[in-house]
Design brief:
Layout lengths: L1 E12 L9 E18 L2 E14 L3 H7 L10 H6 L4 E14 L2 E9 L29 E11 L4 E8 L21 E9 L2 E9 L3
Antiparallel strand pairs: 1-2, 2-3, 3-4, 4-5, 5-6, 6-7, 7-8, 8-9
């Protein structure tokens, strides 16, 4: 078991000449607990539990509301009293991995994003980048399966994925859910040449 905790505090001090006067503040607390279990040489499991609490100007709903763009009415007591708009706890990653020599397969709720993505990752098509997020650096987990097979002592590999949910990770259910033409997937051929990784891929993105 391992993990981390991040706390970020923000204060805005506005000039009297601005249309917005005074000041505001906000705080976001983020924690992530990770666990690994290896019951066999060729089998492993991984899970990540996340907590996030956002208040003040670090809560996206507060920011949206200041511009009259909030998706919920914060003046509606049925919403503000009966729903927790400040904190959430959720299982973000929960997956298993099987290694059969040259063939590997991961399955479950797992991060799907090819490339390093240190600054910009154009191949991250299975999940939406978190909006107004100042503390997390994790790739959101997507329900799916990720197989790969390697050749030439690992210098050449073929990787793929099938994601069983759309990029928005919608929590609603629609009639088009489960149709084959709405299945997101990707295929990539990757080769190692000296100090460089070269790859070519094809991705079907579904929103």
């Amino acid at each position: 078991l391992y993990g981390y905790v991040v706390n970020y505090f923000n204060a805005n001090l506005y000039s009297d000449d601005w249309a917005i006067t005074g000041s505001d503040y906000g705080n976001v607390l983020y924690g992530r607990l990770k666990g690994d279990w290896n019951p066999g040489d060729n089998l492993s499991f991984h899970a990540e539990l996340a907590y996030q609490g956002s208040v003040g100007n670090q809560n996206p709903l507060v920011v949206f509301n200041s511009f009259d763009l909030s998706p919920v009415d914060l003046a509606d007591t049925d919403v503000t009293f009966n729903e927790n708009l400040v904190q959430s706890v959720f299982v973000d990653h929960l997956w298993g991995s099987i290694n059969l020599g040259r063939f590997d397969v991961q399955f479950g709720k797992l991060p799907i994003a090819w490339g390093t993505g240190y600054f910009f990752n154009p191949t991250a098509k299975a999940a939406v980048i978190p909006f107004l997020d100042t503390v997390t650096e994790e790739t959101p987990g997507t329900m799916g399966i990720v197989p790969s097979v390697s050749f030439l002592d690992g210098y050449l590999s073929v990787q793929g994925y099938a994601a069983f949910q759309d990029k928005n990770h919608s929590t609603s259910v629609f009639g088009v859910n489960g149709r084959w033409d709405n299945l997101p997937f990707g295929l990539k051929i990757k080769g190692i040449v000296g100090s460089f990784d070269l790859s070519a891929g094809w991705i079907k993105e579904v929103l």
